[in-house]
Amino acid sequence: QIWRPITATFFFPVGPGTGFLYLVNLYFLYQYSSRLETGAFDGRPADYMFMLLFNWICIVITGLVMDMQLLMIPLIMSVLYVWAQLNRDMIVSFWFGTRFKACYLPWVILGFNYIVGGSYV
After folding, report:
1. What domain count does the chain have?
2. Residues 6+ apart with CB under 8 A from 58
3. What is the pLDDT of residues 45-82, one digit of tens each?
4. Where exactly are the transmembrane stretches of this chain (predicted)?
5. Which long-range contacts (CB under 8 A, 24 or more apart) does 26-35 make?
6. Domain range holding 101?
């Protein structure tokens, strides 16, 4: 059943309690993925695809070890983490005008996902 790691990456259970979290995570995926494509990986789409493939393989292996069934949020967090590490000193704004360095953004998103109802794993 080779399709299971692929479907686990693109599936997110949308319901009354998780719909907002899903939309926010889709926004983060689009925003930071496009920033990576036009920034650090500009003109090198194969390198960007290789990075996504490598992250996906690592997430699937970790998901097997930790018995994680949904892999979409870890993939989004990996893209966000790579962008944040490449832009460590950039000041970013988060909700309600809070501003901090980009290197702290993955930790803020992790806390936000936990507060909204997601998992911290």
Report:
1. 1
2. 78
3. 999 999 999 999 999 999 889 888 888 888 888 998 99
4. 7-30, 50-83, 104-120
5. 28/76, 28/80, 28/109, 29/75, 29/76, 29/79, 32/79, 32/80, 32/83, 33/79, 35/83
6. 2-118
